Amino acid sequence: MRMTSSLLLTSAILFLPCGCYQPELSKYAPRGTSCDNMLPSFGMELPAYFVRKVGDSASPSEIAAEYSYDILRVRSATPGFRMLCSIVNTYFEQWERLVIIERLEHGGNDETGFVVVAVMPSGLTAVTNYGLKGPEAGMWVATEFPRLFKVDRERFQSLMVRLDLARETLPRGLFLFPNVDWPVYILHDIKSDGSYLAYGIAGWAEAEDDTMERLLKAQPTYAEAAKLVGKMMPWQGIEEGSQAARELRQAVATYAALVDMVWQCTLGRPDYFIIGVDPLAAPRARGSRARGVPGFLSTIGQASGGG
After folding, report:
1. Residue 279 and residue 265 in contact, taking contact as beta carbons nearer than 8 Å
2. CA 9 from chain center: how many Å?
3. Model pLDDT for residues 184-218, shown as the tens digit of each residue
4. How far is CA 225 from the centre of its chain?
């Protein structure tokens, strides 16, 4: 975070208009817990697991470079990420734990945002730059300004118990599937002692027929998901349709369900693009593309409760 703070400070100096305005630069310096915590989770040094389209001629290194340039490298330049860093550095002060979701759009456009909850001695403080995108359930849009929102304390405490199980068991990783136009969701669970869970998923929900519905209903436990991921070699590239791709998609159902659980526990409504279905939409007709899955939310997390 010291590097991030330096970047913020540099940006502020560059935009001083003719030296006529002198801001209070101390507001850019990290305070409280962030002074002594480098937050390695934000560095996104995660092993990447790629599922490639059949016949894709790009090498794994080329795919990695595309994601790195189009999404992760431009992440630090997006308004949402800069806003998040500033809030973590200066607003939360004596935090004990941070639970964060970043949602990065392909190409790093302005619709990049975050949800962050800080556990502090005084209680929970939650900030986001997301708002609902019209009346539709499951659609969100990033805004130019952060806003405070309330989190149900009892639900969040239950969520932290589940996150504790996940961080003890699930491997870190960046799990990338062929549809690169879908957002990348990055989950951070950071404690003040420096320990953390971090992983990212992109394009998992783009699957044929009822694959997503089936995988979510029968998602592996954390231990089972960890075992499946442990069979894979990062940075090697996995071809869509292979047994390895099916197993990785099965494992990442558990990761995706956890992101969905955090999102709904904090903002109270789902994000369509995390799991690819809208639980609040009308039930789908038999044989049609899955958009609504009645009642499946009650099963999310139950299958993954074991570690």
Report:
1. no
2. 26
3. 899 999 999 989 999 999 888 776 656 677 777 88
4. 18
289-303 per-position pLDDT tens digit: 433 332 333 333 333
Q: Which residues pair with 175 in a beta bridge?
A: 49, 201
Which residue shows structure tokens 């809208």? 278
Note the pLDDT tens digit of each residue in 149-175: 999 999 999 999 999 999 999 999 999
DSSP 8-state symbol, 142: E
Q: Which pair of tokens denotes residue 288?
A: 């049609």
Contact assessment for residue 188 and residue 98, using Cβ atoms and an 8 Å cutoff: yes
Is residue 5 scored above 80 in pLDDT? no
Tell me the C-alpha distance between 196 and 193, whole Å. 9
> Quick one: which of 205, 222, 201 has its CA closest to 213?
205
Sign of CA dihedral 53, 55, 59, 60: positive
- β-strand partners of 176: 50, 202
Torsion of Cα atoms, 206 then 178 then 303 then 166, to 10°: -130
**3-class DSSP state for residue 297?**
helix
* Residue closest to 266 by CA, chosen among 144, 93, 86, 124: 124
Contact 127, 110 (CB under 8 A): no
CB 301 within 8 A of CB 258: yes
